[in-house]
Amino acid sequence: MKLYCIAVLHKGETKVNPLAAAHELSSFGYFQRKSVQEFMDFTCKIVAERTVTGSRASVKEQEYICHVYVRSDSLTGLVIGDYEYPQRVAHTLINKVLEDFSTKVSKSQWPTANKSTIQFAELADYLQKYQDPKQADAMTKIQSELDETKIILYDTIEKILEREEKLNDLVDKSEGLSMQSKAFYKTARKTNSCCVIL
Fold this sequence. Notes:
Blueprint: E1 3-11, E2 16-23, H1 33-50, E3 55-61, E4 64-70, E5 75-82, H2 87-104, H3 122-129, H4 133-136, H5 138-193
Antiparallel strand pairs: 1-2, 1-5, 3-4, 4-5
């Protein structure tokens, strides 16, 4: 699970205005990173343009997925991650980023500002923090712990059943042994009864 990009844009009537973005491209080759970043920025812009105001969407492209939310005030958040990244966590991240952005950057700046005029360094922190969705999102962390507990519980039940099978085998053998012991005892008694000394 990996996040590659978080972007904040403003969807105007005629165009989409990129306001801030953060990228995590260390998994790409050094000489590819600039092209990958440009492609992700372009994808964010296109997806934002085509998403209806007041709605959410998730767009899949090969092994990547782009999650987008265009608020009713036209502030737009996008997250690009791999296909394994949980959708609920991605949309939670978008909500937090947009809420934080709207409190720190005035709404009057959104239509005209750009990445160079807006300082929103928190995006890089969000990108880093949400790389591990289990640590960043309490629900995902609880779900992961529940899954681990289920695995431990299933292992324990299997071990108990295996132990019970082994015990049943021992009981069966001991019952067979006690029958043989009784037969041996009777035979030994008969044999020894002929040689009684008075």
